[in-house]
Design brief:
CATH class: Alpha Beta
Number of helices: 3
CATH architecture: 2-Layer Sandwich
Keywords: Chloroplast, Plastid, Ribonucleoprotein, Ribosomal protein
Helix content: 25-40%
Family: Belongs to the chloroplast-specific ribosomal protein cS23 family.
InterPro entries: PSRP-3/Ycf65_sf, Ribosomal_PSRP3/Ycf65
Subcellular location: Plastid, Chloroplast
Radius of gyration: 13 Å
Subunit structure: Part of the 30S ribosomal subunit.
Length: 101
């Protein structure tokens, strides 16, 4: 997943995810809007986006969807994450960006 970055917004009882493409070490190109969970199925929304963009390598697609599953499961098991928990999230998922609202 070195060509992509998943960004997660943590908002009370909602988690949102979007996908960015790395252009360089410092620049990102947004590819999707934020997909929200549990109001909608963020995983399914991301899968639909990936399926409609055949330039995304299948291996990257699997890694992206697996990472979303891991983060959502961690978030659900943790009940309510606080700003202090960002450090733990960054350690557990160093390839993602987390923003607590």
């Amino acid at each position: 997943m070195e060509r992509f970055v998943l960004k997660f917004l943590l908002i009370d009882k909602v988690i949102a995810v979007c996908l960015d493409q790395k252009i360089s070490n410092e620049r990102l190109n947004p590819l999707t809007e934020y997909f929200f969970w549990p109001q909608r199925d963020a995983w399914e929304d991301m899968k639909n986006f990936i399926d409609n963009n055949d330039w995304i390598d299948p291996k990257d697609a699997v890694n992206i969807l697996n990472r979303i599953t891991e983060v959502i499961n961690f978030w659900e098991e943790s009940a309510q994450l606080k700003k202090e928990d960002i450090k733990n999230l960054n350690i557990k998922f160093p390839d993602c960006v987390f923003i607590v609202m």
